[in-house]
Design a protein that fits this description.
With about 575 residues, the protein is mainly α. The protein has 24 helices and two strands. About 75% of the residues lie in helices and about 0% in strands. α8 packs across α9 and α16 packs antiparallel against α18.
Length: about 575
């Protein structure tokens, strides 16, 4: 068998390898098993960086497996696998050796990774949904890892919204596949485009929107990200939430048909989420909470851009490469910032200016001033201008002002966490943590060099720089004024800000939701009691019936003994020949 025939089986190896690692005994306990665990994303990374385009057909898999590596999947698989690898190395040094749940963390990590890789390479609908569900429910354990009250709250919110999202996704996929007879995602999109059903599109948009933090369905995101272990937060924010965006791109008929209603809803809620998340995130006092709201804000931008392409199919060919770059750029830089939180909380024995520069570099990239931020901004702006969507481009520029202010707030919180850790004499970060963080910084900074997109990455011309950088300048001025005039001079303002908690709408719906859950629990208990009473009544009725039958049996026995002498007497008379006259009427 030739190498070209064996190559597609690399897709199966990339997915199966982390699943195999999850079954290894002694993860995190034996050195060899730990090193094997860290190798989980490496086959997928090698495929994404060096393998040609390929497809694998598995006739015996579910309804017929069909897995692909194409120009759209390659960049997402590359940056995702790289972030998983770097965050995994970071986790090796982050989790304490005495932590009794290290092995459990490693298994859940490997299962989440396997699900994420499967949904990226899957072209058939069953494999895609299986990967999405595996990733979703395995990540629940990563959020719950700490086990304290905040972790249980964040994990419960995550699981509750995940179940809502999974229900809508399954309903949307079954609906669309049933009407079109499709078994692949490409055929599913074609079927939706031909039928033009707004209802199924809304189901899929909202279902995947739970993972992508759509406004109103985002409640889990600011609660789960801050309580998860830092390496888990990095992959949750950098990779896992992108699964919702990838679900949009793979199931909605983008570039095929214009759907104004769901498209306009996506644009509206996306922009609202981008602005409101930036506003609320300013009042967070923990760096991970600020970063969670920043993730929601940038996911709102992705939602708005996807909605615009759903309204205007002409936009999609120009926007797709820009959105792929934006997703990779956000994932690696946000991952570096989350990993940097652990570095700030455990300051290494390095000069402050050097570590501070490393913490600031991905923040500057996210606001669009350095590295992959500038080409990402420019490609999106150019695509929108070519399609006469200048209003959306301007709205996204104003949303970038909010991103800049949030990044300034993040650095301010990181500085305070650094100072607090130094005062408390925190243990310095391990070599594994430093290696994972520095590797993520380098990968994010050099992203335009190594990432392969469907088209070449375009740098902005000099004349367009001010149009791209004015949100950064304005956001920097606003943040500097806020720090100097409010936070710096009035500690009471900082103390008041510290009382704000992540979760926003969660605290409004928590009590009604708890009451509803309590009523539901009481209803179930009442039904259970009614069922028990019914079973008890049935047992009592059965007992009385059996007692009645026993009584009839005793009566039958008595009658048998009473009739026996009569029968014997009549028999004797007949034998002796005596005349017997029977009354025959």
């Amino acid at each position: 068998m030739s190498l070209s025939m064996l190559m597609p089986w690399g897709l199966a190896v990339a997915v199966a390898w982390p699943l195999l690692l999850a079954s290894l005994p002694g993860l995190f306990e034996r050195r060899l098993a730990t090193l094997a665990w860290l190798s989980g994303p490496l086959p997928a990374l090698a495929l994404a960086l060096w393998a040609p385009a390929m497809e694998l057909s598995l006739e015996a898999w579910l309804l017929g497996g069909h897995w692909l590596l194409d120009e759209t999947r390659r960049p997402l698989l590359a940056f995702g696998a790289l972030l998983w690898a770097l965050a995994g190395g970071y986790a090796w040094g982050y989790l304490a050796p005495e932590d009794p749940h290290r092995g459990r963390f490693a298994r859940l990590w490997s299962l989440t990774l396997a699900g994420n890789l499967l949904l990226l390479v899957a072209e058939d609908i069953p494999s895609f949904y299986l990967g999405f569900a595996l990733m979703t429910f395995a990540a629940y354990g990563l959020v719950l890892h700490r086990g304290d009250e905040e972790a249980r709250r964040g994990a419960w919110a995550y699981l509750l919204l995940a179940l809502v999202g999974e229900g809508m996704i399954l309903a949307g996929l079954l609906w669309a596949a049933g009407e079109s007879g499709a078994l692949t995602l490409t055929a599913l999109r074609q079927g939706i485009a031909e039928q033009g059903g707004n209802a199924v599109v809304l189901l899929l948009w909202l279902g995947f929107g739970v993972k992508a933090g759509v406004l109103g369905l985002h409640l889990w995101l600011p609660l789960a990200h801050p309580v998860a272990p830092t390496p888990a937060s990095a992959v949750l924010s950098g990779v896992v939430v992108k699964a919702g965006v990838w679900g949009w791109w793979q199931t909605l008929p983008l570039g095929l048909v214009a759907l104004p209603l769901p498209g306009s809803l996506m644009v509206t809620l996306g922009l609202l989420g981008a602005f409101l998340a930036a506003l609320y995130g300013l009042f967070m006092s923990q760096a991970k909470a600020v970063l969670a709201y920043s993730t929601m804000s940038q996911l709102g931008m992705l939602a708005a851009l996807t909605g615009a392409a759903l309204q205007d199919p002409r936009l999609w060919p120009a926007l797709l490469p820009a959105l792929l770059l934006f997703a990779a750029h956000h994932g690696l830089n946000k991952g570096a910032l989350f990993l940097g939180v652990g570095i700030a909380q455990r300051p290494p024995r390095l000069p402050f200016w050097l570590v501070g520069a490393g913490l600031a570099l991905p923040a500057w990239a996210l606001v669009g001033a350095l590295a992959s931020g500038l080409p990402s901004k420019w490609m999106i702006k150019a695509g929108l201008h070519e399609g006469d969507w200048r209003g959306l481009a301007l709205a996204l520029s104003w949303a970038a002002v909010g991103t800049t202010v949030l990044m300034g707030r993040t650095l301010w919180c990181l500085y305070h966490e650094w100072c607090r850790a130094v005062d408390e004499g925190a243990e310095p970060a391990s070599r594994a943590m430093l290696a994972g963080w520095l590797g993520c910084l380098a990968a994010a900074a050099l992203l335009p060099v190594w990432l392969v997109l469907p088209e070449a990455i375009r740098l902005p011309p000099w004349g367009e720089l001010w149009g791209l950088l004015w949100p950064v300048v304005l956001g920097g001025i606003l943040m500097a004024v806020a720090i100097q005039q409010l936070l710096g001079r009035h500690p009471a303002v900082e103390a008041a800000v510290a009382t704000w908690r992540p979760g926003d709408l969660w605290w409004l719906v928590r009590h009604p939701l708890c009451r509803w859950m309590l009523d539901l629990r009481r209803g179930v208990e009442a039904l259970h009691r009614h069922n028990e009473r019914w079973h008890e009544a049935r047992r009592s009725w059965s007992g009385r019936l059996m007692a009645g039958l026993d009584g009839l049996e005793r009566v039958e026995t008595l009658l048998r003994w009473l009739l026996l002498p009569l029968i014997l007497g009549m028999g004797a008379l007949l034998i002796w020949g005596l005349p017997v006259t029977l009354p025959l009427g």
